[in-house]
Design a protein that fits this description.
The chain is an alpha+beta fold and 153 residues long. It is 14% helix and 27% strand. It has one domain: Phosphoribosyl-AMP cyclohydrolase (Ubiquitin-like (UB roll)), CATH 3.10.20.810.
C-alpha cells in the first residue's frame, strides 16, 4: 500500500466546519487516536497514527497505529489477538485528534499489561505537589498474562 494523500487543510472555516477530511498531523507526522469501546463508551487506550496507519485503519476497518517506541507500524492485536474492529471514526473540530469507537476482539483487553483499558489506575486530585501521589487500581485484575502472550521474560 502506498502512503495516502489526505486533503490538505483549507482555511480555518473549511477545516472546522467543512466536509473534507484533512487530518492535521503533528511535526513528527503523528495524530493522537483515542479508542473507546463502542458498546460501553469506556476509554480503552490512546495511541498514535501516522498517515499509513490511518489509511490502513480506514481501509481495513481494523485499528492500526504507529509505535513510537518501536518506530514501526503496528496492527493492534496482531500478537495478542485483541484486535479492534472500527465501528465509527470521528475527528475533532480542528482535525488533529481521532476518536475511534471500536468493538474489541479476542478477549477484549486493550492494554499490553493485560487490562481491558490502558487507563486502569486513578490519579488522585486535590493534592499538593508535596503530597505522595498514590495511584488507585480501578480494574480488578489483568485479563491475560503479558509474559505468556508476548513471551517476555
Amino acid at each position: 500500500m502506498s502512503t495516502p494523500v489526505f486533503a490538505p487543510p483549507g482555511d480555518k472555516h473549511e477545516l472546522e466546519t467543512g466536509v473534507l477530511f484533512s487530518p492535521r498531523f503533528d511535526k513528527d507526522g503523528l495524530l493522537p487516536a483515542i479508542a473507546t469501546d463502542a458498546r460501553t463508551n469506556d476509554v480503552l487506550m490512546m495511541a498514535w497514527m501516522n498517515e499509513q496507519a490511518l489509511a490502513l485503519t480506514i481501509e481495513t476497518g481494523i485499528a492500526h497505529y504507529w509505535s513510537r517506541s518501536r518506530n514501526q507500524l503496528w496492527k493492534k492485536g496482531e500478537t495478542s489477538g485483541n484486535t479492534q474492529k472500527i465501528i465509527e471514526l470521528r475527528t475533532d473540530c480542528d482535525q488533529d485528534v481521532l476518536l475511534m469507537k471500536v468493538e474489541p476482539q479476542g478477549i477484549g483487553a486493550a492494554c499490553h499489561m493485560g487490562y481491558k483499558s490502558c487507563f486502569f489506575r486513578i490519579l488522585p486530585t486535590g493534592k499538593t505537589p508535596d503530597d505522595k501521589l498514590e495511584l488507585e487500581m480501578c480494574e480488578d485484575a489483568p485479563m491475560f498474562d503479558p509474559k505468556e502472550v508476548y513471551g517476555k521474560k
